[in-house]
């Protein structure tokens, strides 16, 4: 069990790093620099070794520089059982080093199946260690119950998909339900659950995913969910600038709070790192990408 409330750990991570920036870690074989090795055959030992080396190098670059990491489970799952072992090892190494881990696995189902997902993905002692998990509520809010129970028990958080960053999100999320878009209705139903899970400073462990590509919607969601942390994809490579990305966050005396701004391609696949001839040059490129993104967010 984590020793502190997730929202407290999140606030501390943002303050200690000086930024709400989150590094997405998606080991996409087609984008990984060749200096990490041959990744041409999924599940092959050399591919697994390269992905392990790459993701651990990303973690090392992230430590102390960003507030959290967000591994995308799909890229590890695509490598088979050994890929999932790499994901478990990455989560464990990050948690053990004090790094905040948001597992981006978007899990949900019903009943005992969801209880099994909760055991697998939520908490520092889970097989895939995390501080928080992304979840989907399309099956209904009752499906959150085992996930919330596990998160509450181990001091973890959840981020519920609410207004996602993809261009086609509105086809479902904007559907009119009682005079309001569907995502507003979802946020309103989540509001009491978020309020019930606040730390002493009034910050909730139950948050939402709100894409940076929809800043007006993010502001509306903040009004509905004042205590909820926002996980914000879409910054940088997906086209959203820093002001749009920060639209749903809040400020306090220490700067931006109450959310994480995720960047994946901009941080782990910058153009300057693609042709790096050695690890030192690659690390310099990653460090510069982190610095540039931090500066962009700090300028707002």
How would you summarize this macromolecular structure in one to three sentences?
With 300 residues, the protein is α/β, with parallel strands linked by helices.
Properties at a glance:
300 residues, alpha/beta, TIM Barrel, eight-stranded parallel beta barrel, two-stranded antiparallel sheet, 44% helix, globular
Outline the fold blueprint.
Blueprint: H1 6-17, E1 21-25, H2 45-62, E2 68-71, H3 73-77, H4 81-96, E3 100-107, H5 111-121, E4 132-135, H6 144-154, E5 157-163, H7 170-173, E6 176-177, E7 180-181, H8 182-195, E8 206-210, H9 215-224, E9 230-232, H10 242-245, E10 250-252, E11 255-257, E12 259-263, H11 265-268, H12 271-274, H13 279-298
Parallel strand pairs: 1-2, 1-12, 2-3, 3-4, 4-5, 5-8, 8-9, 9-12
Antiparallel strand pairs: 6-7, 10-11
Indicate the low-confidence ranges by residue numbers: none
| Overall pLDDT level | 96
- CATH superfamily grouping: Aldolase class I
Name the helicity range. 40-55%
Order of helices and strands: HEHEHHEHEHEHEEHEHEHEEEHHH
CATH topology title: TIM Barrel
Structural class: alpha/beta
Give the class-level CATH name.
Alpha Beta
Quote the distance from N terminus to C terminus. 36 Å
Q: Helical segment tally?
A: 13
Number of structural domains: 1
What is the second-level CATH architecture? Alpha-Beta Barrel
Number of strands: 12
Radius of gyration: 18 Å
Q: Could you give a short account of the major beta sheet? A: 8 strands, parallel, barrel
The percentage of residues in β strands lies in 15-25%
Global outline = globular
- Major beta sheet, strand line-up: 1-2-3-4-5-8-9-12
